[in-house]
Amino acid sequence: MREEELEVLRTQLDDLIDKGWIHPSCSPYGAPVLFVRKKNKEMRLCIDYRKLNAQTINNVGPLPRIDDLLERLGGAKYISKLDLKAKYHQFEIHPRDRYKTAFKTRHGHFEWVVMPFGLTNAPATFQAAMTTEFRDMLDWFVLIYLDDILVSSRTLDQQNVHLRAVLDRLRMAKYKDNRAKCEFAQQELEYLGHFVMPQGIRPLVDKIKAIQDWSEPTNTTEVRSFMGLVGYYQRFIGGYARIAAPLSRLQSPQVPFPFTDEVRNSFHKLKTVLLLAPVLSIYDPTLPTRVTTDTSGYGMGAVLEQHDGVDWHSVEYFSQKVPPINTIDDTRKELLALSTRNLNPYGELRPLPIPGEPGLSIAMDVTGPFPRHRFGHDDILTVVDRLSKYAQFLPRKYHATAPELAPLLHTGWICDHDIPEDIVSDHDTCFISTFWTSLMKESGTEMKPSSARHPQTDGQTERAHQTAQVMLRTLIRTDQKDWVDSLPDIEFAYNTSVHPTIGMTPFELHHGGRKGRIFADLPFPKPADIDAAYSPTSVRKYRDFLAKARANMQKAQVRMQQQANRRRVPCSIRVGDLVWVSTEEFALKQDVSRKLLPKWFGPWPVTSAEGDETDGPSFVIEIPSHLTLHLTVHPVFHASKLATYTPAKSDDFPGRRSQDPPSMDGHLEVDRVITHRKHNNKLCSTKSHSSGATPMTRDGFPRQLCEPPLLTSTLIMRRNG
């Protein structure tokens, strides 16, 4: 330190010790000290608490907005300003926290007894204390910003009453004012960087002078400093965003720093307009108000004015640069408005019919694979009763075929619960195979498969899968090989937990009111209770359970339907319409990138609607025959996977054909033979037409590519006349 700083340090330490604000410390903390020169050229002792602040939990208590405080002065004629003496030092620190404020100097190691400057939570703590103290006066005639207390009144008599009330409150709370900085019953004074008077507010002269003396910036940091000071007074500058635009662009470190003539003109113009800044009136909610606006493709501006009975006076200027996205031409703006990801999907939610009683309708699905069990199981077949929500988790092999799955369903569900009337499932190959379809037809069970890639239809089993997986994580070993052993426990826990849809446990509804309990908790039955389950009372109780469950399920479906349809629109697709089909619905095995494919294929006509309703929500699409030979896709699609086709009003693109997906083997499907060539009276090449080729194709196909019998026979028939 310099000699001057050492002398000031010694003097200030002695003064702080004499006042009892600091005392010697043996704390493990130790912040360094430095000095900052005040306006009156004196040296101020400061402590660098950055390391301590980085470890402090921040108090996010807000400080008042300066523009909000200035607006509260509307209509005030007399103002008094009180400044608290050594503001933070008037708060004592709790003894257990004082060691954290320790600082080290050449003359010793000290810690604070009172709250020092530099702590990150000091402003919020001080503001909260002052707000609490003057809560009943706040915003009526008292404004507080940290240690600056403003008392405003419309008349001198009111000012005397208000000022006395504030001073009495400060004396009772034992706060001390700095008499040299206080001003009483003034009509003009400085407050928070502004000069306040009855006519309005204007920037401080010394702040304007600092801006006028600012030299041209040479780097991004200096530009930011200048813009920060000028931006504080932007409310006084009309068209601020337009004037400051060249300088604003230089605030980004990614932009090169060429101080061009345009930037230089912006820099000097900001200085000039601030020098000529008008006096802005303070907003008064009782006066007539108007807002004048102006916009363009590059910026927007506004001025707020009020009428005082004589003339209109400006209250505030607003200016903002238009984002670059809004500066493009109208054509590109229209293109930006097209966003398919924000379109609501077609087809409102239609819950499945509620079964009349348990066992009539089930839903099933498979989940996996899991680590292979010692019995060879690596998958789970989940079966859920759609009314009672009773679930069974049956282990199976992941690649089990339909003939292997049928005995599992028979022993795991049908033997205990009878054959269901219908089964809801997804499009698993087992559930749509010829064997499974024939088996269900023989047993009188109707299969209700969901549409392709629409698992929401079978949502009950999907939810049961999630619950089972969550419970498995908590029960199995780290090697995950014992998951099959835990399935009975998971099944018991699932079925004996209250289901929110039916308002009771699945076990209770499915088995007629007998609550599931752990075996150790079950008492031995009494002879009189053995046949109690079949008594008329039990029958009536079960019917009550059934009615209650169906009512609860109906309410749950209504809530689910309302929630789901909030972001859906009714389906407008009808039989005979041309529609686009989502690319995701096609299994393309050729080496092509889906990212480069169009989002939709088609358009193709709708032949019929699946279900009881004429508007879907699933439809049968007529896919061209030359595509069905190569694409393994089910022709039934959910409405959310379709988009209506809107033909162009004029043929802007003559010759455009429908967008078909690429074939799986890379070959083109030949529709007809146009002509052929022979060599030595033998067929050597043909020229044909293909639905997947462009009209400009003129290449012939060699003889070895003409092997298909249909093509050869057609050619021979045409050749023979």
From TrEMBL:
Residue ranges annotated for the Integrase catalytic domain, each copy included: 354-514
What PROSITE patterns does the annotation carry?
INTEGRASE, RT_POL
Alphabetic keyword roster: Endonuclease, Hydrolase, Multifunctional enzyme, Nuclease, Nucleotidyltransferase, Protease, RNA-directed DNA polymerase, Transferase
| A Pfam family the protein falls into | RVT_1
| GO BP terms, alphabetized | DNA integration; proteolysis
Report the residue ranges that make up the Reverse transcriptase domain in this protein: 1-196
Record-linked Gene3D superfamilies:
3.30.70.270, HIV Type 1 Reverse Transcriptase, subunit A, domain 1, Ribonuclease H-like superfamily/Ribonuclease H
Ranges of compositional bias, category Polar residues: 683-694
| Stretches the record annotates as Disordered | 444-463, 683-704
InterPro entries per the record? DNA/RNA_pol_sf, Integrase_cat-core, Retrovirus_Pol_polyprotein, Rev_trsase/Diguanyl_cyclase, RNaseH-like_sf, RNaseH_sf, RT_dom, RT_RNaseH_2
Molecular functions per Gene Ontology: endonuclease activity; nucleic acid binding; peptidase activity; RNA-directed DNA polymerase activity
> Mind telling me which SUPFAM superfamilies this protein's record contains?
DNA/RNA polymerases, Ribonuclease H-like
List the PANTHER family hit by this protein, alphabetically.
PROTEIN CBG26694 (PTHR37984), PROTEIN NYNRIN-LIKE (PTHR37984:SF5)
Q: What is this protein called?
A: Integrase catalytic domain-containing protein
- What organism does this protein naturally occur in? Chara braunii (Braun's stonewort)
